[in-house]
Structures are given as structure tokens and as C-alpha cells.
Amino acid sequence: MTESDTTTADALAQLSFAVMAALEKCSDRHGLSVAQARMLGILRDREPLMTALGAAMGLDKSSISGLVDRAERRGLVERYRSTQDGRAVHVRLTDEGRERIRRGEAEFAAEIARLVAPLAPGARAELTRHAISVAAAASAI
């Protein structure tokens, strides 16, 4: 398939496969599943309620509970009761979880830099702007 024959859907699918491969590689290096890495990434700058974390990840109550349980046993996250509603539970990173995601992010950024290295700096900046727009539109759906 030539560049002129490639549809937007095809191009984005191929790009998503390459990005997911990089994410899987980095997650695996740090002993994490992609879902665990995604959860740690979400938690790096917030301490959401369990329900909000599940919604952000598209997981039902039992699936997010299992994911958090496994990460908690590994010392990556911890739960704590809400000060406003004692029935509600928040999740936050532990120091180990924060360090694990920090190292993983650096490696993932390096993998992505290798992927986009063939692009000129202006094209990389343009790709970033477009990716932000597409991601924002997707999250609004």
C-alpha cells in the first residue's frame, strides 16, 4: 500500500499498533501489564475515587478492584478513605509506584522519540498538536 492509498483509519491503526508495541515493551521491562502502567500513569497527578479511576479506564467495579488489589499487593498503590464520605475510597501512588512510573515514562518517551525520529522537528510538533486534538475529541465522545 502506498502513502496515497493509505486511509486515515489505516494510518492511525498502524500508528496505534506501533505505540502499543512500545508501551508493551516498556511495561514489560518494569514488570507491569499495560493496564497497570496505564493506571499508574493516571495516578501520577491525581488521587481519584475508585469509581472515577474505573470510569477513566473503562473498567467496571470488579475489574478496577482487582487491578488495584494486585497493584496494592505489589506496593505500587494504596487506598484511603475519603475525608468527605467515609464510604468512598481514593487511590494514590506509593513512592515505589511513583518511581516505577517515572522510570517507565522516561523509557516510553525514548521509544516514541525513536518512532518519530524520521520526522523533521516541525513535523513532530505538528504531529503532537494533531494527536492532542484527536485525543481530546475521542475523550469527549
How would you sum up this structure, described in words?
The protein is mainly alpha-helical and 141 residues long. It has a single domain, classed as Winged helix-like DNA-binding domain superfamily/Winged helix DNA-binding domain (Arc Repressor Mutant, subunit A, Orthogonal Bundle). It is built from 6 helices and 2 strands. The protein has a two-stranded antiparallel sheet with strand order 1-2. A hairpin with a 7-residue loop joins β1 and β2. α3 packs across α4. The longest helix has 22 residues. It is elongated, with a radius of gyration of 18 Å. It starts with 7 loop residues before the first helix and ends with a helix.
Topology diagram in text:
Blueprint: H1 8-29, H2 34-43, H3 50-57, H4 61-73, E1 77-81, E2 89-93, H5 95-116, H6 121-140
Antiparallel strand pairs: 1-2
Write down the overall geometry.
Answer: elongated
Helical fraction equals: 55-70%
Strand order of the largest sheet: 1-2
Q: Please trace the helix and strand order, writing H or E for each element.
A: HHHHEEHH
**Unreliable sequence segments:** none
Oligomer: single chain
Per DSSP, the total helix count is 6
- Mean pLDDT across all residues, rounded? 92
Structural class: mainly alpha
Compute the gyration radius: what is it?
18 Å
What descriptors fit this protein?
141 residues; mainly alpha; Arc Repressor Mutant, subunit A; two-stranded antiparallel ribbon; 2 strands; 67% helix
